[in-house]
Each structure stands twice: as C-alpha cells, then as structure tokens.
Amino acid sequence: MSGKETIILLSKILTQPGLEGNNRRYIDIILEEEIPVFCINEDTNKKRQMPFKVLFDNNDNFWHKKGSWEYYFSAEGYNKLKDKLLARSAAWQGQAILENDGGSEAENKTHSHGIGHEVEVGYGNEYTYFTEMTTEEKIECLNNDKKRLNDILSQKYKNEAEVTEALVDTTKDAAFINHATLEDAIYLADDEAKKMTQVLVDSTHDMVRASALLMSENIFSNELMTTLVEKSNGTIIQHMTRVYLNGIAFLSYYNNLVSTSSAIQRLRISFASKYRKFYHELLPHIDIDDIVLERVFFGGMRAIPTDLYFKWAVGFLIHDIGKASAIEYHEGEAKYDRKMVIEHVKQGYKSIMTKTNYPMEASLITGYHHEYYGDADGYGYFRAYLAQYKKQNPDAKQDYCITYELEPMLDYQALAYFPAKVLEIIDIYDSVTDPHRVYRKSMSPEEALVMMKEEFVDKNHKIDAILFDIFAKFIREKEKQAQK
C-alpha cells in the first residue's frame, strides 16, 4: 500500500446496525482470506500491517479498543471481503449492510502512509505490536496477565478451556515483551539497562509463578496440548511457549514422581544393568563399581525445591531470548550456519547477565541448554569457562554428572546443570514434533521418543539417560490420557 489510497475503518464495517447476528460470519471470512489490517497511530503517525488473526486472538473486539491506534482495511481487502459476502448471499441475510459501503467517501479516510510489511520473520508478524509498546504498556500487559492467571487460580472449579487460553496467551505475551525489552536494553549501559528492566524482571517472575502454579494443577491437560498445536505457527515465540509450558509440566511430573512413589528405589535396583555403562563412559576416571545414582545426581536424586522451581521456570521461558530473527528455529532453506546458531546462545546469555537482574539460575539455562554432555555437536557458553578452569587446574576432574545447584557447576565438580539437561530434551522433542515443520515431516510423539533414544542416548551420549526415560514416561502417560 503506497501513495494515497482509500482505507476503511474496521470499526465502521464490523459495528453497523443490524450486523450483530452476522459478526462472526464476517470475521470467519476475514480469517479465511487472511485479509490484513492496517494499524495507524493517529498521534505519532506510526503504521504497521498486521494479520487480523493476530489482533483478534489477542482481543476479539480489538477494533473497539480505546487508544491512539485505529484499524483499517485497504480498498483491496475491503473489496475482497465484500465479494465473498456477496458470493454467500444466498445462505446469508444482511449482506446488504456491507453493500452500502462502509459509509460515504467523506466518512472514510485517505492517508499518505507508505505502510510496509517490515516485521521479523523469525518472531512472526505479531512481534511488531510489542515493539511499539512503551515500557509502561509492557508492564501493564504483564500485570494484567498475572491478574488473569491469579483470578483463575482462585476459582474452586476451573474451566479447562479458559485455563488453556490463559496459559498460552500469557506465556506468549511474556516471551514477546522480554525479547522486545532486551532489544532496547542492548543499546544502554549495563547499569542503566538493569534499572530499566528491573520492573520487567519482577513482573515476569510474578507472572511465571502464577502460570507455573496453574500448570502444576493439571499437567496432562488434553485441552492445553491441543491448543498448543492449533496456535503453533512455526515461529520462535511459539516454540518458546511450547517449551516453557511443557517444561514446567515436566518439572511438576518429576517432583510428583520422586516425592510420592518408589521411583528412586526402582532406579537403584535397575541402575547397574540399565544405566551404569552410560554414566561410566561420561565419568571414565571413576571406578565402574563406584558409578551409582549418587554419582549421577550430586547430593542424591531428589525433588526440586520451590525456589529453584520458579527460577528454572523463568529460564525455560527466556531460554531462546537471544535468538536473532534471522535464525529459523527448525530448519530453514538457507545453509545451516553453526556459528550463527551458537551466537544466539552467547547473545542471550550475555544480554540477560549484563542487562537484567534475572537470577543467575535462569541466565545459566540460556547459556547451557545445548551443551550435550560435551559432545562435539553440542555448544554452550560455559565450554570456554570450563576449558579455562581446567587449564588453570590441570588435575581437576568432574566427579558427578548432574547438579541441582550452581556451585558444583562453577567449581568444576559436575558435568551438567539439571534444568539445562531437562531443557535439552524438551527442546529436541519440540523441534521434531512441531506440526509446522516446513522442510521435514514432523514426527509423532512415539517416533520422536524412539529417535531420541537411538540418536541422543544410545549412539551419542548427548542427553541424560535417566532424565530421558522419565520424560518418555511423562509423554506416554500424557498420550494415554489424551486417548481416554
């Protein structure tokens, strides 16, 4: 859309007298035809093109929202809508409402706005909506999301569809807002950036706490899994949403398993025959008879403390926050650029560490979630740190596989950080089961689990064997619930 072109107010089309009964039908056509909306800020003259679906999913009456933004159809989009309405006129009544135009020519507006479609592909068209927000508007959005979740938490009897919509929508908002804020913070001095992002950090933590509590009440929600698939569009933000929600569901499942069952005792019984060889290959300097469950989990296998649970949940949410828009998460047409992919890990870690006050636990997850137990295919920000530590302490050896706390990682005592090993598994699983994979066919849950066991546990020791088996049990139970 360039030069002077008549654009028609969306509110004038969808709020005419007598339209009430047909509103949904009109909207269905707009969604089917993917008619874009032109958004113009009457105060600042900022403009953008957005998919109607994005705005509608966020607020199903957005054209009535009070503020500086006005929403329009181009003449081309309007005519397409009218043509479709006329084509269906035999089945509908009231299509004449639109045939009368959206009002007189004087009532419509002509703008000299050169509205382009300059959006970041990797984050989807909706991302622009959040980049235009002021800091106050971003905080208000997060606080409204927190209130929405807390209101549902306070209900004795919860509607599963309402819970699902709230979890998906609020997670997506938080991911968008955090990325948009970090993009702005990068250009500020560290102290100034931390001051600017502090309220964001606090609001995100409160929102995450509410959503994690709500998610923990129903970790096998069929409605949630269905909605996650339906709302998935292949973008980085949708991947982050799925990983976050599946991640906190798995942490809840893990806690329930190790706290209320004899799971740990069963692992001890089967450990020698099922897992000892795997972990001895990771810790070859330890006598094989000394490879026991306590060598796998520093301090012993146990439930996750509440304070760590919420810090890790934040880390799951922001784990790909540094990913550049140029990187397609799954598999793009462009040649794989390992340096570019690794850079997103470093960029995300550095941004969170230097520009925000997020807990270090969350930051470490962003920098360590592709480490793969030191495998050559893995990468992680801490590899250079650990190599330097080893250089200065040549006799140092890592005597444990996984730690729940940070200190054993930093002190070169353990190979891996528990939440990062969990995230590796969920990250891989999501990438291969995403229904919107473009260049390869997506796998079914069972196909994904079989492939991951063969390629990431048996052939290559990239993900953790015990955590993977627990995850597989989690997914299979979830699938069983879905079939009931």
Polypeptide structure, described:
By secondary structure, the protein is of the alpha+beta class. Helix content is 57%, strand content 7%. The chain is built from 22 helices and seven strands. The strands form two sheets. It has a five-stranded antiparallel β-sheet with strand order 3-2-4-1-5. A two-stranded parallel sheet has the order 6-7. Strand 6, helix 19 (407-410) and strand 7 form a beta-alpha-beta unit. The longest helix is centred in the middle third of the chain and has 27 residues, at 190-216. The chain is globular, with a radius of gyration of 25 Å.
List keywords for this structure.
22 helices; 5-stranded antiparallel sheet; two-stranded parallel ribbon; alpha+beta
Q: What would a concise description of this structure say?
A:
The chain is of the alpha+beta class and about 475 residues long.
What order do the helices and strands come in, and which of them pair?
Blueprint: E1 5-9, H1 10-14, H2 23-33, E2 36-41, E3 47-51, H3 52-58, E4 69-74, H4 75-87, H5 96-99, E5 109-111, H6 127-131, H7 135-153, H8 160-185, H9 190-216, H10 222-231, H11 236-260, H12 263-274, H13 276-282, H14 293-296, H15 306-317, H16 338-355, H17 360-368, H18 382-392, E6 400-403, H19 407-410, E7 414-417, H20 418-433, H21 445-458, H22 465-482
Helix pairs in contact: 2-4, 7-8, 7-9, 8-9, 8-10, 8-11, 9-15, 11-15, 11-20, 15-17, 16-17, 20-21, 21-22
